[in-house]
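Handout, section B. The chain below has 214 residues.
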Amino acid sequence: MYETIASVYEAFASYSRPKDFPACQCCLSVREKEPLLRRKLMELSADELSGYAADVFLTVGTVQDFKYFFPRILDLSVNEKFGWPDPQVVLGKLRLADWDHWPESERAAVINLLREKFARLLEDENTDGSDIDKWVCALGRCVPDVTPYLEPLLEEANENKLLSFIEWSWSALSKGKLASAFWEEAPDNQQRVVTWLNQPRVKRLLSEKYGMVF
């Protein structure tokens, strides 16, 4: 994903490192803020950015400084470097930043990276249902309609990933929901995914290949 990540940094390169930004001292102390204002963006670690990434728009930051830090935050998130915040939290910040009105070049760079991340996730033999649920939910919190991103799950090579996703979500699906609690912040896309999983093509696949009645 190196080139795609590099394109995200390039798309946001016009935003300068902030000299300061508002922050509740209880959430981000002066000591924790200091490296964010001093160090080069690419040098910032997950530990140094985690507090800002989790609390931005709640008790710290503005859209202007967020757009400076966001490429690094997204880089760390797609590479699974954060212990916290989860991808659902990171990508949920985009709606709070009114990203529907961001320049198309910025939006396209972010979407291209997220598409590649999901593709790599499906290629990884260690990916399980919780991983799929986590990243589908993350996408669902920032795009208008998440269902186009699900189509690769119908490819023959990814059928086991689709099954794992359904198994992980089985208890919640019986109630018309999905497993991640973060879906509560994206109810429309949650319903779209549930509807997508109930399509005849998915039901037929589960019945014919795995003997599952869904």
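Note. DSSP finds ten helices and no strands in the chain. Compare this with the example in section A.
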